[in-house]
């Protein structure tokens, strides 16, 4: 397995301001797909795809950090099983940068074969002609809300927004969003960044909305909630989730459950008495999608990678990293996830409560955040 470019850190910003949304819309008007892959180049069944992928020799990915959702485990398992090398360019690229890379590198040997993009970028990827359909062998068992009906993408995993807590700085761990209003948490609560740019911060606002009378179609109560925390002094800013916890900038910080799991060992090594929790109300999650790019350099390896991610083995690797595999319910009921993997995931009762937005709901929420966040949330 090989990496190119320098890792910039685990934060994957999504650049979801008004300008970015407008840019996507404008690009969609003039998108040119450049032609889909010639069907003669692609194996006719899974075994032929796997054989041709081995001949291609590698799969080229972008924005797949090793510590994100246990991708290091995926890389090792995939290479061992199929004899295909995993090459990762710009492991910490944003979703917007992933789409731009396909546009810039289309037709070149360095074009990415498969992406890993935030759910709110799936429509833009399709509209700009950057992806082509592929339905992996487990297609029928992937829930409808985690796949495009035409096969343009699958969402192989999702996360749940959670709070990381420095147990030495908090006398009582909050259980609900309403608990966060308590004056005893003054100067202790943070989201990992600006929700106009980062997926985990958007998720925190969405979760707060669900806990305060909002819905997946109405994120405004979440903005109002954080405006209230900012006004009371409970909400503070941090440089990043990990640094904020290590440096004591805040004691309660929102982020994805799998990100906290991935940082847990290092935080404890840094002397932080750390645990993470999912609040009882406002249980919100969202997925990342893995589309095959248009006319990719290694079309069979690309498809084999998507098959791996949605396979039983791929699901196990995701779960070991705290990411909830798309086929979780099926595999858990069949006893196909290890005890270690299950222990890395949120409680099944929490997973049952997770609400996942559609790409359209995400687009609408981003527009509201872009226009209201700076006006209302002062901290």
UniProtKB/TrEMBL annotation:
Single GO MF annotation: thiamine binding
Keyword Signal: yes
GO BP terms in the entry: thiamine transport
Keyword entries, A-Z: Signal
Top-rank taxon: Bacteria
GO annotation, cellular component aspect: outer membrane-bounded periplasmic space
Coiled coil: none
Residues annotated as signal peptide: 1-27
Keyword Signal: yes
A Pfam family per the record: SBP_bac_6
Designated name of the protein: 2-aminoethylphosphonate ABC transporter substrate-binding protein
Organism: Trueperella bialowiezensis
């Amino acid at each position: 397995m090989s990496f190119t470019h320098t890792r910039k850190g685990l934060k994957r910003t999504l650049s979801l301001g008004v300008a970015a949304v407008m840019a996507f819309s404008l690009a969609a008007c003039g998108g040119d797909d450049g032609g889909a892959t010639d069907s003669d180049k692609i194996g006719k069944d899974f075994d032929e795809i796997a054989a041709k992928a081995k001949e291609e020799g590698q799969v080229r990915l972008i924005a797949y950090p090793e510590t994100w959702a246990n991708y290091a485990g995926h890389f090792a398992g995939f290479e061992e099983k199929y004899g295909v090398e995993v090459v990762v360019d710009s492991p910490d690229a944003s979703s917007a940068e992933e789409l731009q890379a396909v546009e810039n590198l289309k037709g070149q040997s360095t074009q990415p074969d498969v992406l890993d993009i935030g759910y709110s970028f799936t429509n833009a990827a399709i509209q700009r002609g950057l992806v082509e359909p592929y339905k992996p062998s487990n297609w029928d068992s992937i829930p409808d809300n985690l796949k495009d009906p035409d096969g343009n993408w699958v969402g192989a995993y999702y996360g749940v927004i959670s709070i990381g807590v420095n147990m030495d700085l908090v006398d009582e761990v909050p259980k609900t969003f309403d608990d966060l209003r308590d004056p005893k948490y003054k100067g202790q609560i943070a989201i990992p960044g600006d929700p106009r740019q980062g997926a985990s911060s958007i998720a925190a606002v969405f979760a707060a909305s669900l806990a305060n009378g909002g819905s997946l179609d109405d994120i405004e109560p979440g903005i109002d909630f954080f405006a209230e925390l900012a006004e009371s002094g409970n909400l503070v800013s941090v440089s990043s989730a990990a640094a904020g916890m290590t440096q004591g900038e805040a004691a309660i910080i929102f982020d994805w459950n799998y990100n906290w799991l991935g940082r847990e060992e290092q935080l404890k090594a840094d002397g932080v008495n750390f645990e993470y929790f999912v609040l009882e109300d406002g249980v919100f999650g969202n997925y990342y999608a893995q589309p095959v790019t248009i006319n990719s350099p290694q079309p069979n390896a690309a498809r084999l990678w998507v098959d791996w991610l949605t396979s039983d083995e791929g699901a196990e690797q995701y779960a070991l990293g705290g990411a909830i595999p798309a086929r979780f319910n099926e595999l858990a009921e069949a006893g196909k996830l290890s005890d270690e993997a299950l222990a890395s995931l949120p409680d099944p009762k929490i997973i049952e409560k997770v609400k996942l937005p559609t790409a359209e709901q995400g687009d609408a929420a981003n527009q509201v955040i872009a226009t209201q966040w700076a006006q209302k949330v002062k901290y």
